[in-house]
Amino acid sequence: MADEAQQDKTEQATPKRRDDARKKGDVPRSRELTMTGVMLSGAGGLLLLSAPMGKDLLAAFGQGFVIERDVIFDPLLMGPAFAEIAGKGMLSLLPFGILLLLAVFLGATAIGGWSFSMKAASFKTERLNPLKGLKRIFSANALNELVKALAKFSLVAVIAVAWLWGSTDDLLSLGRQPVEHAIGSALKLCGISLLVVSTGLILIAAVDVPFQLWQYQKKLRMTRQQVKDEFKETEGRPEVKSRIRQLQQQIAARRMMEELPTADVVITNPTHFAVALKYDQNSAGAPRVIAKGKDLLAKRIREVASEHGVPLFSAPPLARVLFRTTEIGDEIPAPLYTAVAQVLAYIFQLNETLRPGQKRPEAPVPDINEDDFPGPGKARRVDTDGE
């Protein structure tokens, strides 16, 4: 069953799975890259700092050999004297130590980045299980690490022996040099030796880094069912999303009804669609749609409009086009300016007080060709004869 489940993991890891793994401290790492970085940094540090380090170490050693006899036999004085000498020695090695610490940090985060997680350091009882411990020891991964360790040791050993064999004269010449020169020369020779040995580690790291990245990607692979389950958890289950949409629609409808009494006109189908428009004469903008709906919602819009004295205007083609091409809060499309202007002019004339003998204005018939206004979900045409 485990092999079958492993074979089913054909999908690449999702961003969420990668983030979850990082939170747990599970990131790709290459110990070979870290070791190579430390070795190269150590070699560079010895080559660059050999002269000042040798000078400081010589001064510390010299101070240690000139301690007075009274100080040596006095426990109260020997301790501070030894601490002073050791402090100077440590201070001379401080730049080199800082360089190595930076190399360790940069090498460890080179391919996986910085990741700090308490979960990785937390206590887990299963780690105390001897059976699981033996399983890890005799696993394929342990065998792979053993092979890498042997290959690394063999390669480094061959390079080191070849280099030391060829550097025999330089090593023996250190004994014939004055102490002040021998210390610096020894540090420089150590730096060159580390640099030469590091060439073998570079080859090992060049192979190990792609392998670690591939192995990490393989470990994070997911089955299709895992991808589906994660999508449901991230995006929400269908029934939850449906409920959220219902609540959002209810909130939007409530706000729409609150603004509806301020509308100038409600253009209707007259029964199946209703679109409420508001025009601010002090603004340079076009009329805006502040409410719209169909069927039961259209009925509710007409009822609220009637309760607050908002005029209703029956123009089926115009109502259908407005419903299809606009959203709440949008300005009407430019091709509908003329038709809407005719309706608003008619409504504004009705709102004026008619003088005695003045005829009631004739209702306009907006000339709208619905085929000129394609849109998503084209509204169904409704025969309004007799309504």
Structural class: mainly alpha
What is the chain-wise order of helices and strands?
HHHHHHHHHHHHEEEHEHH
Report Rg.
42 Å
How many strand segments? 4
* Main sheet: strands, sense, barrel: 4 strands, mixed
Strand order of the largest sheet: 3-2-1-4
Instruction: Give the number of helices.
Output: 15
Task: Please state the average pLDDT score.
Answer: 77
Shape descriptor reads elongated
Report how far apart the termini are. Answer: 69 Å
Work out the strand percent.
Answer: 5-15%
Low-confidence blocks of residues: 1-6, 377-387
Helix coverage percent of residues? 55-70%
Descriptive notes:
The chain has 15 helices and four strands. The protein has a four-stranded mixed β-sheet with strand order 3-2-1-4, sandwiched between helices. Strand 1 (265-268) and strand 2 form a beta hairpin. By secondary structure, it is mostly helical. It is elongated, with a radius of gyration of 42 Å. The chain has helices spanning 2-8, 15-23, 31-64, 69-72, 75-108, 118-121, 130-137, 140-166, 168-173, 179-219, 224-235, 238-259, 296-307, 316-325, 337-351, and strands spanning 265-268, 273-278, 288-294, 312-314. It is 63% helix and 5% strand.
